[in-house]
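subagent[fold] <- orchestrator: predict structure for attached chain, return tokens only, no commentary.
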Amino acid sequence: MENLWDTRFGQKEYAYGTLPNAFFKSAVDTYNLKGKLLLPAEGEGRNAVYAAKKGLDVYAFDTSIEGKKKAIKLAKETNVTINYEVGDFYGLELLKEKFDAVVLIFAHFTADIVSDYHKRIAELLKPNGMVILEGFSKNHVEFQKINPKAGGPKNLDMLFSKGTITRDFPNFEIIKLEEEEVELAEGIFHQGKAKVIRFIGRKINS
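subagent[fold] -> orchestrator:
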């Protein structure tokens, strides 16, 4: 997996473009997010840089050093600063932090780790902290067959459903949880009609 992403992000062009994901941008603008923001599997930094431009204190990570290089380059060109680590999730320095929001944009993990990752991510949130998630739906497989350029994992177990979201984020007030058909135009790897799950949740005080 890591070699795949280093290969993809090692090219000159930005694999998913330099503009923020549309759903993420809308959520940041609508909810006027403040404070510390965590972006797992952030890749080349398009969302991290947008959040930093909006005044958020941005922490991002990925397994790809090539992704980090592109993200830091984009941040410098945009005159913003982001914190970006490369490595295994459970070995990161940012685990010492607490966050006001976590954004998971097409952050797909294998079935054996995804629930543990989501649980740990929820623990990193402050009370009333928000999760913003967009990922390919299990029903996206049919769109992949028609248009491979739409992107997304080929492994059905790595795709989302509304049920997997409520399973993994049980102690959250659901602000939005929908399966939607969208038209993606993100770089060269997300192009065309896609089926996605969109989730916005607020951590309930415990």
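orchestrator: received. Logging for downstream: The first helix runs from residue 2 to 9. Strands lie at 36-39, 57-62, 83-86, 99-105, 125-136, 172-186, 190-203.
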